[in-house]
């Protein structure tokens, strides 16, 4: 695994696939890879992320223009529950990605969402201190909700993780990550599926051979960017 500045970096590739491609690939993966142990009986779990950005929308702009080194902060929960709440920093360095993550309490999350971040200045977590400084320097604010269901497969050799993200939705201006009844709207044409492939130093040949040649060439896909652009489009329609 590549390591820079104390951060472990991985390969990450993303693809749009259609339902027939999804069905073929999930059948092949199920025969060799393990299901994510955190998944429910249908092998899926729900992810809701709240992304932060500054008043200039720099996180969005840097993604759109392809800045080689960039970062985003997000808060993430699973299956609409506050039992596990993560504050994360996603980092992109050229063709590599890295992620720092720390668990926070519901009380801490509520304070952050209310704009009270001063208590993070003395945190034992390097990530929370960095988030505090980013807030002070660039006035980070809750920006966009990203919702989807994830079906994940893992393989020990190469630390491979392959996921299907299904039903991408956004909150259309709402940023209360804990609101189970939030109205959300689809952000990509249904029933599109986003395939993500992550691994450390190598991808085992046995897994490479599972992918049909019909899988489209990989492209730059950012769920944050898709949902933010969709939100702006609907804001323009309402005006």
Strand content: 35-45%
- Contiguous uncertain segments of 5+ residues: 233-239
Question: What is the level-2 CATH architecture name?
Answer: Alpha-Beta Barrel
- Give the class-level CATH name: Alpha Beta
Q: Provide the domain count.
A: 1
> CATH homologous superfamily name?
VTC, catalytic tunnel domain
Instruction: Describe the global form.
Output: globular
Largest sheet: 8 strands, antiparallel, barrel
Reported by name, the CATH topology is: mRNA Triphosphatase Cet1, Chain A
Share of residues in helices: 25-40%
Give an account of the 3D structure.
- The chain is α+β, with helices and mostly antiparallel strands.
- It has one domain (2-238): mRNA Triphosphatase Cet1, Chain A, CATH 3.20.100.30.
- Helices cover 26% and strands 39% of the residues.
- It is built from 6 helices and 11 strands.
- It has helices at residues 19-32, 58-65, 106-113, 126-138, 205-208, 223-238, and strands at 2-4, 7-17, 34-35, 44-53, 69-78, 81-93, 96-104, 141-155, 160-170, 185-186, 193-199.
- The chain has an 8-stranded antiparallel barrel with strand order 2-7-6-5-4-8-9-11, surrounded by 5 helices.
- The radius of gyration is 18 Å and the shape is globular.
- The termini are far apart.
